[in-house]
Amino acid sequence: MSAERESGKPKLPKSFKYGARFASPVNSPSWEWRDDTQFLQVTTGCSHNGCRFCTFFKNVPYGKVPLDEVKFYLKYVALCDKVIPVKRVFLQASNAFHLSYDELMEIAELIYEYLPGLESIGSYGRMSDLRDKSVEQLKSLHDAGYSQLFFGVESADDNLLSLMNKGYDSAELYEAGFKLKESGMPWACTVMFGLGGHGYGFEHAVKTAEFFNAVEPDIVGAVSMTLTLDPYTNMVAPLKHAVDRGEFVEAGEVERYEEMREFIRNLNASTLFLSRHSSMPVGFAALLPDKKEELIEAITKVIDEGDEAGMKQFRERVREV
Length: 321
Known about the structure:
By secondary structure, this protein is an alpha/beta fold. It is built from eleven helices and ten strands. It has an eight-stranded mixed beta sheet. Strands 2-3 form a two-stranded antiparallel sheet. Strand 4, helix 3 and strand 5 form a beta-alpha-beta unit.
């Protein structure tokens, strides 16, 4: 008898999480893959789709999913709710939070119509998605169920924001971050190590830590820039072509952990730091600032004992980021 039967708790197969109803593979933070979370596509592609390190959604144009189609798939999610109660819906695709305030509110109303027991709604977003949303609107969105949104910050260094074609500068980054902080909207974000290439990391680490100190996200998730072939698009990131031409030299593996240590040394915000992404050869999790010194010691051990060749082989085997 299976463990599921013995416990009396049914299990949904992973195929219930994705399939024909998505224009591209489901993309979300790893902690969103829970039995009580379902994914709902309300946009396709990425509204910016220009970051030089990224391959996500390169073969899918940005668009809005018609509400009739959203309703159709909400009926499916409602059926899943009868098997395992759905407590959270995470919107797809790349940055569903690009939708307007009115559109997001309408989607929330629809979701709760089909899932009255829902607890929260999540979404990926770009920091530029906050341009058209006021602090009061963010508060209203939070009241409507939006929570723990995830933004791809990567860096607060203007040189890298420009080099990687992020589509905004650090001044807009701070403006957006302060909106989130003032609104009380819980949010998470990324910092990307190795983004500046060989020899550049410390300036990026310090400036990005300063930004997080100012805006205090709930979670900072670390990733390491990995220019792998995307198995879904059969494409590489635009930056990979610059690497192949010798125009950009990637940071070494130990060098990335030196960058991480510098980042943590300068990070004073109260936040949960996670570096358990598929791009990280050695992962960490620490509540800051309480565990800051222990985290620095652990990172230092990786730097002192790190196997550069072994970690490079690890990165070469990464197929999905």
